[in-house]
Amino acid sequence: MKLSIPSNAEKILRILEKNGYEAYVVGGCVRDSVLGRTPDDWDITTSAKPEQVKKLFCRTVDTGLKHGTVTVLMEKEGFEVTTYRVDGDYEDGRHPKEVLFTSSLEEDLKRRDFTINAMAYHPDRGLVDLFHGMDDIRNKMIRCVGSPLERFQEDALRILRAVRFSAQLGFEVEKGTEEGIRALAANLKCVSAERIQTELVKLLVSSHPDYLRKAYETGVTRQFLPEFDICMGTEQNTPHHCWTVGEHILHSLLSVRADKVLRLTMLLHDIGKPEVKTTDENGRDHFKTHGARSEKMAKEILRRLKFDNDTTEKVCRLIRWHDARPLPEMKQVRRAVNRIGEDIFPLYLEAQRADMLAQSGYKRSEKEARLNGVTLCYQKILEENQCVSLKQLAVKGKDLIEAGYRPGPEIGEKLNFLLEHVLEFPEDNRKEILLSLL
C-alpha cells in the first residue's frame, strides 16, 4: 500500500534514518490516509531518544520530554516526534506512572488504544499493521489493541473515544470492546471535564451524532450527562411527538448541520422537559415552561463541562427562544429578530426546522408553511437592510445630546422609543423623521 505523506514529514524520516534510527509516521494520520481522509496532523514515532532528536534538528520545541515527545519545526509546520515507548502502570486512570523508552516498534504500537490507530507507515517499507487494523477498517469496526479492560483502565477517556471514533467513521464497536466500555464506564468520573468536552463535541459534530445512543446504552452518558439518560426514558404522549424526549433529541441532531453551537443547542433544547412534565385527565402530556427550564439546566451543564462563555451564551439564548413561533408577518419577524438577536437569528431558524423535523407528522404542513414564511420575511429584512436593533437606528445618543437632551437614562429611553417605532414602521428610519418624532 502506498500512502501520500507530506514532504516535510518524509524529510524528518530520512534525517532520522540517515543517522541510524528507525522512524515511521504513525497513528491517526495513517488511519485517515487509508480512509481517504485528510489528516489534521502527522505524528512520527522513532527509535531515537528525545535528546538525539533535538541534536538532529535546528528548530525543536520540548512538547513532552518526559513522555518522549519533541516537536520538530519544518518551515511553518510542526511535527510531533515521539520515541518508541512502553508505558508503566497507570495510577490515575490517565497518566502512566513512568514511561520507558524501547527500541521496539511493536512494543510502542502495542500500547495504543485501538487497532485502527496502531498502524505505522514508511515510504519504503510500507504499512506496519501488527494488530489487524486494516481488517477492522474493512469491517468497519472499533476494536481495542489487546485487552479492552487494560486499555480502558490505562486511560478512561478511551471509553468515550471509542464511541466518538464510531460516530466519526460510522463504525460499529466490537463486542469485547463494548463489554469493556460497559464494565468500566464509571471510570469516566476520573476524567477532567475539559477532556470529556473535547470528545463530546467531536462526537456531536460528526456524521453520526445519534451514535450518542450507544454512549447511553453502555452507561457512558450517565457519568457526565445524566440529564440525557432521564430524557431517554421520558415518554411524550402528545400528537406532536412520536418518540421519547431523548430519541427526539437524537433525531433533531441528525436534522441540523454539523455546527458546534447548533448541535449543542439540539442536544440540550429539551433537556428540562422531564422536570416540567405534567399529564392531564385525558392522559396527554404537557411540557409548559420547558424552554426556560432547559435554558437553566443547559447553562449548568455547559459550565460543568467547562465550555467557554461565548458558546454557553449563544446556546442558552437559542434554547430560550427555540419554541418561539412568530407569525410570517414582517412586523412580527422584525420584533423576533430584535428579541432573539441578529447574531443568532439564522441559527434559531435552523434549530426550529431541526426541532420540527424530529417531531411527528402532526400538522407538519402548517408548521412548515409558518417557518418558511418567517424565513422569507427575514430574507426581505436583510435585503432591505431594515432596522431591527439600536445599532441600525439612524439616530444615536450623540444626536439626542446635540438636540438638547442631557446624558443619562433619558437618552436610552428615547432611543428605545424610536426603535419601537421603527420596528413598526421601518421606512421611518431616517434621522430627520426620528428627531421630529421627539
How many strand units?
13
Shape type: globular
User: Which percent range describes the beta-strand content?
Assistant: 5-15%
- The helix content is 40-55%
Distance between the termini: 77 Å
Q: What is the mean predicted local confidence, pLDDT?
A: 96
Structural class: alpha+beta
Radius of gyration: 28 Å
Q: Number of helical segments?
A: 23
Low-pLDDT stretches: none
What is the topology, as strand order, of the major beta sheet?
Answer: 3-4-5-2-1-8-9
- Major sheet characteristics: 7 strands, mixed
Summarize the structure.
The protein has 438 residues and is α+β, with helices and mostly antiparallel strands.
Question: What key attributes describe this structure?
Answer:
seven-stranded mixed sheet; two-stranded antiparallel sheet; 13 strands; 11% strand
Describe this structure in words.
- With 438 residues, this protein is of the alpha+beta class.
- It has 23 helices and 13 strands.
- The chain has helices at 7-18, 28-34, 50-56, 105-110, 133-138, 148-154, 157-169, 175-184, 193-204, 212-217, 221-224, 226-232, 245-254, 260-268, 273-276, 290-304, 309-321, 330-340, 345-357, 364-383, 397-402, 409-424, 431-437, and strands at 23-26, 43-46, 60-64, 69-74, 77-83, 85-87, 99-101, 120-122, 126-128, 141-142, 172-173, 278-279, 285-286.
- The strands form four sheets. Strands 3-4-5-2-1-8-9 form a seven-stranded mixed beta sheet. A two-stranded antiparallel sheet has the order 6-7.
- A hairpin with a 5-residue loop joins strand 12 (278-279) and strand 13.
- Helix 13 (245-254) packs across helix 19 (345-357).
- The mean pLDDT is 96.
